[in-house]
Amino acid sequence: MTRTCPFCDVQSGEILFKNELAMVLIDQYPVARGHLLVVPKRHFGSYFDAIEAEIAAIHRLILKSREYLENRFNPKGYNIGVNVGRIAGQSIFHMHVHVIPRYEGDHPHPRGGVRNIIPRMGDYPA
């Protein structure tokens, strides 16, 4: 049985907004309220396989996502990230960017941000 790509098979009603080369979806397994995904329309696996026009289109949608989240949820910060490869945690091999709003008190020790992916690596000298 062939597995289909959830981002290639997305229905138009699932798209929050889009531009010519990318779209924004609400993450189906959010780590925070308002967690969004910015997804290129073309199927490819890695950020490093994107063409410059796609990177620019994705960037514009990251900014639009921030505006949307500011107006809707008023977060106090953001994590923006891309997982590239299985070893880095990628589980859907259609490139996508996570836009994760952060809220006061959502983590007891947020210092280090994405460095905390690897235990104890977020604890570095100030």
Output the keywords:
alpha+beta; five-stranded antiparallel beta sheet
Description of the structure:
By secondary structure, this protein is an alpha+beta fold. The chain has one domain (12-105): HIT family, subunit A. The chain contains 1 helix and 5 strands, in the order E-E-E-H-E-E. It has one helix at 52-72; strands at 15-18, 22-26, 36-40, 77-81, 97-102. The chain has a 5-stranded antiparallel beta sheet, covered by helices on one side. A hairpin with a 3-residue loop joins strand 1 (15-18) and strand 2. The chain is globular.
Map the helices and strands.
Elements: E1 15-18, E2 22-26, E3 36-40, H1 52-72, E4 77-81, E5 97-102
Antiparallel strand pairs: 1-2, 2-3, 3-5, 4-5
